[in-house]
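S.,

As promised, the zinc ion run. Input:
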Amino acid sequence: MKAIEVKEAKKIEIVERPMLKIENKDDVLIKIKAAGICGSDVHIYHGTSPVAVYPRVIGHEMVGEVIEIGENVTQIKLGDKVVVEPIISCGECYACKSNRPNACSTLKVRGCHVDGGFQEYFVAPEKAVFKFNDDIPWEHAAMIEPYTIADQITWRADVRQGDYVFIIGAGPIGLTILEMAKLKGGICIISDFNEKRLDVAKEIGADYILNPSRCNPLEEVRKITNGMGSNVTIDAVCLPQTFEQAIEITSVAGRVMCLGFTNEVSKIAQLSITLKELDVRGSRHQTFKFKNVVELFNQNKLSPEKLVSNIIDYRNIDEALNLIENKPEEICKIVLKFED
Ligand SMILES: [Zn+2]
Ligand SMILES: [Zn+2]
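Predicted complex:
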């Protein structure tokens, strides 16, 4: 079987690997059909991931068809269309015991610490796979995992009915956050330099779109909220200065969401957090969100078709990476297809 392997930083190849087999009685064997390319896959390829180990089969947004099941598998059946949850946690540490296995002290992520979904077949325990409806196209289903991340972020942000939610950045993460925040009743403002992405944001329900090349977004947010500021600010750009802006524009008793992996320092005075009694919260991966997001997909409540901009055969991974590196303004989400 074929797999996309990052041998070391900046060296990616399609390799032949031994066919995977069911190893444990609760495993299922999946024929991968589609998998989205995430920013973190690109980081692993570039050698800028703080956590990845090489060589690695990347990919964690994978969906496929179940073609074999172990003898202890009870819910999943042959032929089921499934999505695989990427995180593997210990169950013992403080985070795990606090019902937050996504922050496990020894967390392993498929496609990062262990091999992931950019391969023709995949084996996972039944508890890590979730079945979705047959009528959902593979390339849209590959968006289930990104929406679980957005579900997590908006849950951590405690988005409530009528909250003003300011999302900085309208890339795939910002756009999925927008949809989840709308479902939770937020009034959503989103900013980006890319007009195409702002158009998509408008189509999927943004109440206000802001282009910082034409306005001062913070002033606009103040105007929109009658001087209050946003109740929830989600920084999906993750630069030192966007984090500073998020702290500045958030209202009293508001929440600021931090998603970045940068080591660069932001300049933030304690006073700005204390005075407004802000909650500054991190969010990484997701906890127990697949069930909810699969249900939303089954009910056709989300718009993955608006976010997937390119569907590319996995054998053309170089072409996909080339688009991400050289024409980021022309793409949104790229999904690799693994069907023959
Ligand atoms: Zn991802
Ligand atoms: Zn743990």
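The two ends are 12 Å apart (CA to CA). The first helix runs from residue 39 to 46.

- D.
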